[in-house]
Amino acid sequence: MAATVGRYDILDKLGEGAMGVVYRARDTTLGRVIALKMLSSDLNNEEDLRKRFDREVEAIGRLSHANIVTVYDKGQAPDGQLYMAMELLEGSDLRDLIEKGGDLSLAERVRIMIEISLGLGYAHSKGVVHRDIKPANILVTRAGPVKILDFGLARLGTGGTITRRGVILGTPDYMSPEQAMGKPVDNRSDIFSAGGVFYEFLTLEKPFKGKTLHSVLYQILSHEPTPILTLNPELPARLAATVYRMMHKAPERRPDSMEIVVKELEDVAAMLQRASNRNAFLRLRPSSGGKSLSEATRARIREHVARGRAHFDGGEYAKALQEMRQALKLDPNCEEAAEVLFRTEQKSQDDSRARVTELLARAAGPADDAKQALAELALLAPDDPRVAELLRDRNQGR
Ligand SMILES: Nc1ncnc2c1ncn2[C@@H]1O[C@H](COP(=O)(O)OP(=O)(O)O)[C@@H](O)[C@H]1O
Ligand SMILES: [Mg+2]
I need a surface site. Which of 108, 218, 364, 397 has the fewest CB within 10 A? Predict the structure, then answer.
């Protein structure tokens, strides 16, 4: 292998797909290390593939987004081999992460899914359909951001990944039904594929498990994947519902855009954060060392909770909040009050903002009051970094 291509010194191999090989290389002009993708030499003489390679550079070149790989340069080696220089991404692609069995937390998975959705939604907003969304084309960097790669099939004419020779490049596993039939595809085809990727990321199983190309294509067209919750009952039902809708066979029944998917995933992320803060809070036992509540106090707590529930059921959220706060004042560990408070808060956003400000001030005050304020904050403002910080401090006994 030529160790130098244009102004790039090749260092080692990073990965490989159906179209090309990607190397780590040094840009001798700018002195930085980059990723160099080269069209495979056995494909290099195929005119449609050369065009496709150019189109990839053009597609990525139009896009500037934190969740999409950045392209720097393109060129041709003296022997005619096409290459493109991209930002170097250090990390693992999603294929690797899934194969390793994924010791990622659910919250981490949801974050990755949100980033994929943001990148894809952005590409769609710029008129770019990716058409080859699959785990190998998504890179989770060590530094943090998730990047969508490989726009090699983006904006090709109709026909998806089926080339003129009728050969499918790479895997058909995440293809949409319309793509599998060779029909024209739009954003909604990418939404289907992203749904397939999410499905596998959450269950570690492929949605369509045919053993041959044709059986996979057949399943995509006519087979419903095993329900996500059957494979992984621990997952939040609304997360499964979102993925399920993304994978609807009929494009018009899928979410209209990736923005909608982002919104739904963000709701799930907030819910997980709440649950985790709440657990962090419940680990804090009262500073008074578990002093038991008198029967009279317990009776009052029950009354507040009962009234709060009734208000909640009647849609009187402000009143429900009042009651639950009273209950939590008497017993910051009252799970039932916390639960209703949590659900009520989701209904009355405005009310809660003012409350958060007030509670943050109180959380810095005298011990008992601070504790109670924190109990409520953990539920009311789980995403607020100040709350997370307070909880951390408390757990460290400060
Ligand atoms: N910019 C990059 N930085 C690091 N690794 C990359 C980069 N681009 C691609 N890779 C790795 O190389 C593999 C193949 O790249 P890809 O663009 O998907 O090529 P193909 O079109 O042949 O599928 C990817 O799955 C990924 O693991
Ligand atoms: Mg690829």
Answer: 397
